[in-house]
Amino acid sequence: MKRLQTELRNIDHKGYPAYKGLKGQYRFASYELGIDHVQGDPFASPSNLSVRIRGTAAGFPEEFYREKYRRTALEDFLLRGFCAGLDKISFQAKGSGKSGLVAASRPGQEILERSACQVDEARGDVLFRFVVGFPANGRSVRAGELEKILFQLLPPVVERSGIWKNINQSRLQERIDLADDQEAIRVQLKELGLVAFVANQSILPRESGVSQRPMKNAVPFVSPKSMEVTLTLPHRGACTGMGIPKGITLIVGGGYHGKSTLLQTLERSVYPHIAGDGREYIVTDATAMKIRAEDGRSVCKEDISLFIQNLPNGKDTTCFSTLDASGSTSQAANTVEAIEAGSKLLLIDEDTSATNFMIRDELMEKVISAGEEPIVPFIKRVKALYQEKDVSTILVAGSCGAFFHVADRVVQMERYLPKEITAQAKQAAEEYPCELASDGRKMDFSESRQVFLPRAQERSKVKVMGTDGFLWNKTQVDLRYLEQITDAEQMMALAKVLEYLMKKNGGKNVVLNAAVDEVIIKLEKLGFHILCQGNVVPNMAMPRKVEVMGCVNRFVKG
Ligand code: ADP
Ligand code: MG
């Protein structure tokens, strides 16, 4: 600490690069400060810093961090407190450019593991990663202002948000209790053969298309009696709501009655939500994947023959590549890739589907003979996918009754409330027979598909564009239709995972599933640092395997 102070005084008014010499570790009263990366000039990305509070000083009870899901809840809580503290001190130090900015990654409504706050599983050390705009006067060092940040402003924030005796303990206990309850729902989901649970009184709609905060004055969710299940949670006790069993579930209803809102809620509830979100007690199978049409995406050596055969250009659909897929081929590829990646629940909304991928009506079948039609629609495969591969589907289909034939249950949304109408729907369907005979095709999915990964350059640059995608050096990777990516931080982690895979396997054909499993297991066991040489990028959030596979699949070219 003294050394840093002396050094700061030595470099005052010097050229900005003099800051570079500050890189290193410094011992403060209750933590170690790391100046991990120093920005090159006042307008560049701000410098990366970290703070490590030893477990003995942080003093959090061991039972809060030994188990992964609790540790993630603890980290999330500490990070939110830390961020709030930094907000108050940001830009209090002055200068040009980004001088005085102090910030850490800002979690949204989900609770995710993030590189910005990590608690060590064994010792309980608390680590925060954040950025600071080193203050400048034009292009020269303003050391006094940095001294103000590091010696006056920052220490109380760290101490108030990273040390057990200083934090709001009952608040934290509530968050840990909620995490226990959420985990209990997840466990019981499996035991009961459910793919999703939506607690009564949950708030599903969001404030707006760009805000994931709850809508005010929304109609609270109430399960239909026939689908009610009551779970027993360790803290909340009995919790009743709608259980969606495995199999094929159809969501129908008039326009604007809340169908897509229910589906979007399920898409998002693969992650736990924070207290006050309205979706705290909603849990979806963690492998659930939204499947949609994605015209224009590239497909690399994918076997889409389950859905597409005999293309007019004679292309082989068992090893299909294109740089510009159509609506139906893209949705076929998205489906096959999701199942290859291990998804056990497909979430589909007719609003964002290619109609000809989903269904073909009888009249059309009569006019265009099967031999001339390359597409075997999803409706003909959905049952076999469940029966043979244990892949369930939840499908919003407000305009197509043919799905009544294949659905295990039908839920109607009416004025934002669900009713179960399976019996009526099945009865009505009997009067409209539908030819869905199987062609005997087995539901085979390759787990050993190989793709060629290009070699990564030594120095690579990643620029994240929100949840739309990222630029990797000069290559644009468009992931906007992987709709469950939560935020720019998950995007950053996806980019870094892709880079890791290329560094490791670049220039080779690799079995994609195995390569991705390897990195995910390592990431979960060892942490974010495996993705970074040297300093850990301070703004990464843990991605799921299905999105990592989705990212690589859109990047590689066949
Ligand atoms: P659908 O897919 O059936 O056409 P949406 O799910 O898109 O309908 O919902 C239509 C509108 O109703 C949206 O603006 C949504 O925010 C709003 N909405 C959905 N659920 C509720 C609710 N429980 N309470 C109030 N408004 C809701
Ligand atoms: Mg809709």
Key features?
binds adenosine-5'-diphosphate; binds magnesium ion; 14 helices; alpha+beta; 27 strands; 31% helix; Rossmann fold; single chain; 6-stranded mixed sheet; 558 residues
Describe the structure in your own words.
By secondary structure, this protein is of the alpha+beta class. It has three domains: about 170 residues, no CATH class; about 200 residues, 3-Layer(aba) Sandwich (Rossmann fold), CATH 3.40.50; about 110 residues, no CATH class. About 30% of the residues lie in helices and about 20% in strands. It contains 14 helices and 27 strands. The strands form eight sheets. Strands 1, 2, 3, 4, 5 and 6 form a six-stranded antiparallel beta sheet that branches. Strands 16-19-20-14-21-22 form a six-stranded mixed beta sheet, sandwiched between helices. It has a four-stranded antiparallel beta sheet with strand order 12-13-9-15, sandwiched between helices. Helix 3 packs antiparallel against helix 5. The chain is globular.
Secondary-structure map with pairings?
Layout lengths: L1 H10 L12 E4 L4 E6 L9 E7 L1 H4 L9 H22 L12 E2 L13 E3 L6 E7 L3 E2 L2 E2 L1 H20 L6 H23 L2 E6 L6 E3 L2 E4 L13 E6 L3 E9 L2 E5 L6 H10 L13 E3 L4 E3 L7 E4 L17 E3 L4 H14 L4 E5 L5 H4 L3 H6 L14 H8 L2 E5 L12 E6 L2 E4 L1 H9 L19 E4 L8 E4 L3 E4 L2 E4 L9 H18 L2 E4 H15 L18 H11 L3
Parallel strand pairs: 14-20, 14-21, 16-19, 19-20
Antiparallel strand pairs: 1-2, 2-3, 3-6, 4-6, 5-6, 7-8, 9-13, 9-15, 10-11, 12-13, 17-18, 21-22, 23-27, 24-25, 25-26
Helix pairs in contact: 1-4, 3-4, 3-5, 12-14, 13-14
The structure holds adenosine-5'-diphosphate and magnesium ion (MG).
Adenosine-5'-diphosphate binds next to helix 6.
